[in-house]
């Protein structure tokens, strides 16, 4: 920026900032004026890209869905078989919630769960949850469980993820760290993927 002028912000910049605000402070933190200040711009930049706050929230929810569901599934699908995909998925999600408490997958998930009845959040959460459960069910089915047992095990794995995210968020001192974390995650995966039950 040799001219000393700030580069124009894009809708993507605003959406990324909104998603980060959502992770750090919940849906209420997605407010135009504070976001403009954090981005070093004015509200005019916002209105160039979005009609209103709801449009920004919808864009942030879409970004979250792509990032934390579509891309995760695409990444996991690179594994050679269902067992490996299942282990990779569980390792990824159980370790991701332990990252930066304000931006990890668990932080957004928990913020959205807290506002699950909001008219923009409710359909997104329902769609994402159904997609994730369907994917988990398909992996457990491919690993040898009947469809009904696979659905139950998928629900158990998803509930374990949500509980793990809550624990890591609210009382991180109870979640292992360092080398102990790898062993903890391995035991979670072993417990959840044991199909001979």
Could you describe the 3D structure shown?
- This protein starts with 10 loop residues before the first helix and ends with a helix.
- By secondary structure, the chain is an all-alpha fold.
- Helices cover 71% and strands 0% of the residues.
- It has helices spanning 11-25, 32-39, 43-49, 53-76, 82-96, 105-114, 121-142, 147-170, 179-193.
Summarize the structure.
The protein is mainly α and 197 residues long. 71% of the residues lie in helices and 0% in strands.
β-strand amount: under 5%
**Helix run count:** 9
- Structural class of the secondary elements? mainly alpha
Shape: elongated
CA-CA gap between termini: 62 Å
User: Helical amount among residues, as a percent range?
Assistant: over 70%
Overall mean confidence score, pLDDT: 91
Largest sheet: none
The stretches of 5 or more residues where confidence is low (pLDDT under 50) are: 1-5
Observed structural traits:
mainly alpha, 9 helices, 197 residues
Protein topology:
Layout: H1 11-25, H2 32-39, H3 43-49, H4 53-76, H5 82-96, H6 105-114, H7 121-142, H8 147-170, H9 179-193
Helix pairs in contact: 1-2, 1-4, 1-6, 4-7, 5-7, 5-9, 6-8, 7-8
């Amino acid at each position: 920026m040799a001219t000393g002028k700030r580069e124009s912000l894009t809708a993507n910049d605003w959406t990324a900032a909104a998603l980060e605000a959502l992770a750090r402070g919940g849906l209420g933190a997605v407010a135009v004026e504070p976001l403009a200040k954090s981005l070093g711009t004015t509200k005019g930049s916002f209105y160039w890209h979005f009609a209103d706050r709801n449009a920004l929230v919808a864009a942030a929810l879409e970004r979250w869905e792509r990032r934390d569901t579509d891309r995760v599934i695409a990444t996991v699908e690179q594994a050679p078989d269902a067992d490996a995909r299942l282990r990779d998925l569980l390792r990824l999600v159980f370790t991701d919630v332990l990252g930066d408490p304000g931006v990890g997958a668990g932080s957004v998930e928990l913020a959205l769960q807290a506002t699950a009845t909001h008219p923009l959040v409710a359909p997104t959460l329902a769609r994402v949850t159904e997609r994730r459960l369907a994917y988990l069910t398909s992996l457990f089915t491919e690993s040898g469980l009947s469809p009904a047992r696979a659905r139950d095990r998928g629900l158990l794995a998803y509930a374990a993820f949500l509980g793990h995210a809550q624990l890591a968020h609210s009382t991180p001192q109870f979640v292992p760290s360092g080398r102990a974390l790898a062993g903890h995650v391995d035991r979670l995966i072993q417990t959840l993927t044991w199909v001979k039950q």
